[in-house]
Amino acid sequence: MTVQRTALFGALAGALLAAPLHAQTEIKIGYALAAAPDSHYGVGAQRWQEVVEERTDGRYVFRHFPSSGLGGEREVIEGVQLGTVEATIVSSGTLANFVEEAGVFDIPFLFRDLGHARRVLDGPIGQDMLEKFDDVGLKALAWGEQGFRHITNNRNQIASPEDLAGMRLRTMENPIHLQAFQTLGAAPTPMAWPEVIGALQQGTIDGQENPLSVIVSVNLNDVQEYLTISGHVYSPAILLVSPMVWDAMSEEDQEIFREAAAEAVEAMRGFVDEVEESGLETLRERGMDVAELSAEDRAAFQEALAPAYEQYYQSYDRELIEAIIATE
Ligand code: PAF
Q1: In the chain, where the domains are located
Q2: Is 156 exposed, middle or buried (0-12, 13-18, 19+ CB in 10 A)?
Q3: pTM exceeding 0.85
Q4: Distance 251 CA to ligand 1 centre (A)
Q5: Does ligand 1 have an atom closer than 6 angstroms to the CB of 67?
Q6: pLDDT tens-digit readout, 228-266
Q7: What pLDDT is attached to residue 23?
Q8: In this structure, what DSSP letter does residue 34 have?
Q9: What CATH code would you report for 24-326?
Q10: Is 93 near ligand 1, meaning CB less than 6 Å away?
Q11: Rounded distance from Cα 145 to ligand 1 centre (Å)
C-alpha cells in the first residue's frame, strides 16, 4: 500500500513538473519552401520562432508546415484569415488579390537593386502598405524577401523579348506578372506553386520564373535546362499573422511578435544575399546553361513592356510609383 502510494505521488509530481506553468498557444506556420537551413522561408520562420519562444518563455510554440504542407499560398492566406493557420511567410504571388494596391511592388523593373527595394519596403511606403492588410482580415508584420526573379525554361536561352515568343511560362497567380509576360509575347499560365514541378516534368509548361533563392533551394536544375538572369521583377515576401491570434495577445506579446518578425526578415535577407553571391556558380555546377541579360537587353525588355506600363499607370497611383522610383 505504502509503496503504491509513493509511486502514485511520484507519478503525479512528475506529471506536474513536466506540465507547462502557463497556457501555451500553438502557432502553425505554413510556407512554400524547405525548412531551415535549406530555404530563405525556412530560416526566416525558424528565427521568428526562436525569438518569440525565447522572449515569451515558451508561451507560444511554433509548429512548421514547410514545402506547401498546408497547400498553395492563396489557400494558406485564406487559412490565416479564417484562423485555421496562425502565421505564414508568403510571396507577393496572390497578395494583390487580397490588397490590390500591394500589386504596385510587382511592376517589372521598378526596383533598381536589393538595397532600393529594402529601403522602400522598410520605409513609409512599405509600412503604410502593411497597414492595409488590417482591412482584409490579416495582420501583416513585415516585408520579407526572395530576391529578383529570373526565367528558367527547357526550350531556349533568352536574350530578347522575341526569344520568349509563345513560350508556355508559368507565372504566379499575379495579374501584374501575367500582363507583363502576355505583353512580351509569351504564353503565360498562372499556376499555384505546388503544381509547378509536376507540370515542368510532364512538359505541360516550358518554364517558370523565380529568384535564385528558390531556384537553388528546390533544385529547379533537375527539371530546367536554361537559366536567364533577367532580374525582371523584384519578389517581396510578407510575414502574416492571423487576427484571431493577434487580437487575443497582450500588447507586450504583439511587440515581441513584431520584433521577432524583423529578425526573421534579417535572416531571410542574409540567406538571399548569400545565394545571390554563390547561386550562379552552384547552378552552373549543377549543369544549367546560364546567361545574363546585358543592360541593353534589359532596356529592350523594358521598351517592349511599354503597353503594360500604360496599364499599370492606370491601375496604380502614379505618384506612388514615382515616389518608389525616387526613393534613394
Ligand atoms: O513562384 C512562387 O509561387 C513563389 O515564388 C514561391 C516559390 C511559392 C515562393 O513563395
Answers
A1: 24-326
A2: middle
A3: yes
A4: 32
A5: no
A6: 999 999 999 999 999 999 999 999 999 999 999 999 999
A7: 85
A8: P
A9: 3.40.190.170
A10: yes
A11: 11
